[in-house]
Amino acid sequence: MARKQRIHYEGALYHVICRGNNREYIFDKEEDKKIYLETILRYKEKYKFKLYAYCIMDNHGHLLIEVGKVPLSKIMQGIQQVFTMKYNKKNGRTGHVFEQRYKAILCNKDEYLLSLIRYIHQNPMRAGIKEKLDYQWSSHRTYIEKNASRLVDYKYILSILSEDINKAIKKYAELIEEEIDKEEMTEEELNKGIRQDRQPKQHETKKLDHKYIKQKTCEYYGVEPNELSKKTRKQKIVNARKALILISKEFSDISNKELAKELHLAESTVSNILSDENNKKLTQIIKL
């Protein structure tokens, strides 16, 4: 079965998790961790995405990425392929290095950015690593030590906490020291991401608020929300309405019936919009 086509949004925030094939310890050597980070930097400079946090454990890695114009799939394809080539050459082997497809969870930036950074930086603590937060292969120390970094976009995160850099670091340190219940984080934080970047399972829920989607769609198309429910042939309003239907069905729990009622459309019209492949392009570049 073909994989479901991804919808790319400029500014989308992803929590990416990469595991070694068969849970192999592909990062157990410091040299391999260094090569992986160097590869990430190479593609960060090429594709202009933002990296807010990382933690490279021995058999998996966590990345918190905000994409720009280039979709995550292309970014990760480059990173994974180059590392795989170097890893196999260095170890005289062939075949897969990573576990099939990486896992990527699209998250609500406004609500979960700081929580995800904390979750990622606390990985060594949960794994029982003696260095805990001082673990060398995470981005935590970049935040604490104010080290200039081409890899980690830490200044933006600190600016959220305070305009004063020293106060921001203090607040960050306090935030990171707060204990996260692992089960709560897994269920509440990770599953409150919008969608996983793979074929969704039936039990996965969609977590973007429909009103938020409507606001962003209207901002992109330059229309007022009340215009979406009016009878009109203006192309930008027609396109905005179609985009709202497509994105809402992809990323929220709203039903066809509810969309039809809100937009003053027949339910069959909503179904036709959703089934028309030509409409998919309308959703490709809206920034949520």
From TrEMBL:
The keyword Isomerase does not apply. Residues 158-193 form a coiled coil. One of its GO terms (biological process) is DNA replication initiation. Transmembrane segments: none annotated. The keyword Transmembrane does not apply. Pfam families: Bac_DnaA_C, Y1_Tnp. The lineage of its organism: Bacteria, Bacillati, Bacillota, Clostridia, Peptostreptococcales. This is REP element-mobilizing transposase RayT. GO terms for molecular function: ATP binding; sequence-specific DNA binding; transposase activity. Keywords: Coiled coil. Residues 9-123 form the Transposase IS200-like domain. Residues 209-277 form the Chromosomal replication initiator DnaA C-terminal domain.
